[in-house]
């Protein structure tokens, strides 16, 4: 499990040391730094996936494209370097990257520290570490089991990609591979801790059950298209109606579908990054997804999410109060924007009843502000 992320001279951060839990909520104003935290994790994971052997951090990739060195190095510093560090229960790794050309689309590895000690870099570098160190590294293993679902999820589509089974190990950054994953892995058994009662424990049936939990009467069907490397997803919102094209049943179902598939298909020790799970969901469903994310974290899958929804937060708080997830496993970070100052989040602590020990200014307080003006 990832326990902490360290960033130095990366985007809006001069320096940041951010604790992570089984479930971590990144909240706050636009431009405060939430997405930058997610992007740092994704840059490392994407580099490992796209360039197993190499000594540079890729800034331009198929999932995340951040531009050149000048775009990612903190604008308030005159440095040509940045640092990223990850801590797990067993290990702490810190990478220092240095660029001679701020126009470059990658940044070269300068040095690596493991548990505070410099590690000699030889002629070969695997996953940004010496090969022997990399193969046994808990940090590398965690980052290689990381999945990211962006806020820009694939909306209703006639056809979705269908690849070979190994090509559907994850739902895809935009959720575009979720239907194919469900097609290939529909008979896989879901973690018993996540299984709905009175529902077969296979992935397909559990996904159907959870979709019905959010949208009563909902059902789904996935079918390969003959002669085309594509699959169709058909949905219905009422058991008495026919299956329809996704664009005829509302955005909410198609936005939630890949998240449900990702949560139920995840294995223990996987790390899921999810941006704005509340998109196109009504308030009750937003609260429900908060509770489901907490249940997923309790099952052994680490979840890091960015959210602007107080309903998602309240779903997590209710899950803690109902003893579905220990309060000690939750981290909440609020990022505010202070011009001229380093971006430093405030981190309210949650107790066993789901109560927070502080409520920073601007932290999900807009309802109270508007109510006071209306009164």
UniProtKB/TrEMBL annotation:
Coiled coil: none annotated. Transmembrane segments: none annotated. Residues 326-374 form the DUF3696 domain. InterPro entries: ATPase_AAA_core (IPR003959), Bact_Antivir_Def_Nuclease (IPR051396), DUF3696 (IPR022532), P-loop_NTPase (IPR027417), P-loop_UCP034888 (IPR014592). Residues 23-314 form the ATPase AAA-type core domain. Pfam families: AAA_21, DUF3696. This is DUF3696 domain-containing protein.
